[in-house]
Amino acid sequence: MTACNKLLTVHNLGMRFGGIQALAEVDFSIAAGSISALIGPNGAGKTTVFNCITGFYPPSTGSMQLALEGRSQDLGQLLSSPLFGGSHRIARIGIARTFQNIRLFREMTVLENLLVAQHHQLNHNLLAGFFRTRAYRSAEHAAIDNAIGWLEVVGLRDCANRLAGTLPYGHQRRLEIARAMCTKPRLICLDEPAAGLNPHETEELAALIRQLRQEHAATVLLIEHDMGLVMGISDHIVVLDHGKVIAMGTAQAVASSPAVILAYLGVDESQNTEASV
Ligand SMILES: Nc1ncnc2c1ncn2[C@@H]1O[C@H](COP(=O)(O)OP(=O)(O)OP(=O)(O)O)[C@@H](O)[C@H]1O
Ligand SMILES: [Mg+2]
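Above: the input record for the complex with adenosine-5'-triphosphate. Below: its predicted structure, written as tokens.
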């Protein structure tokens, strides 16, 4: 991976919660345009990495670099810059995420969920909103068109006016992806998008993730326990265990790594050469 095609570089990332060292000395890079996966046993620190990248927690140590307009910039500084102020800071920087436990506005319609996500792209001028100027109305129409377009991509166009909380679980997962993509991110972080899906829905999810990369120029970073999905779609896999990176590389390299087999199965690989993660 050359310096110029790295979209995100995480260096020496550490995160401590009181007495728990959730992450320590975590180093990895994500190539622009790739589908990368962050895997590891429960409690390995995967979601904590997402929480650092997306500004939910300031890391205890380390740095995160994001390639922005052709230049590598300090993500920690961007996240605290007044230029990207407010709760939509991360979307303005070009990163979006979904959550391990779905976080939709359940009492809002499907369409409204996507409009709220784009709020930061609308004209914030109060007077413009109050008088509904031409520029404000045009931005509103663009947001609705964008939302409908994404509902079509994820197969939820017919559900636009339903309350989000009434959708079947698999549809809610797709709506979360549409909501994240609505903000036109360059990096989308998906936290266990296949959790709770049946095998058919998981196959559809794999196709959707490929589509995000191929047709919408998104770089995808995926946390997932479904190894069939991870191995099938990932260009690059980073494996965490107890807050540390224990392996990284292609699916094949990671699946045959003794450290990974030990972390997942708790056995010495020399006694179980058939095992795979
Ligand atoms: N806000 C927090 N306060 C205290 N401890 C936390 C917090 N967030 C995470 N942890 C701890 O950090 C460690 C890593 O948690 P994390 O949620 O990142 O794991 P994970 O790899 O995402 O696990 P899973 O596969 O179960 O989702 C765990 O020991 C967890 O209890
Ligand atoms: Mg997690």
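Notes for the reader.
The chain is about 40% helix and 25% strand.
The pocket of adenosine-5'-triphosphate (ligand 1) is lined by residues 17, 20, 22, 40, 42-48, 100 (CB under 6 Å).
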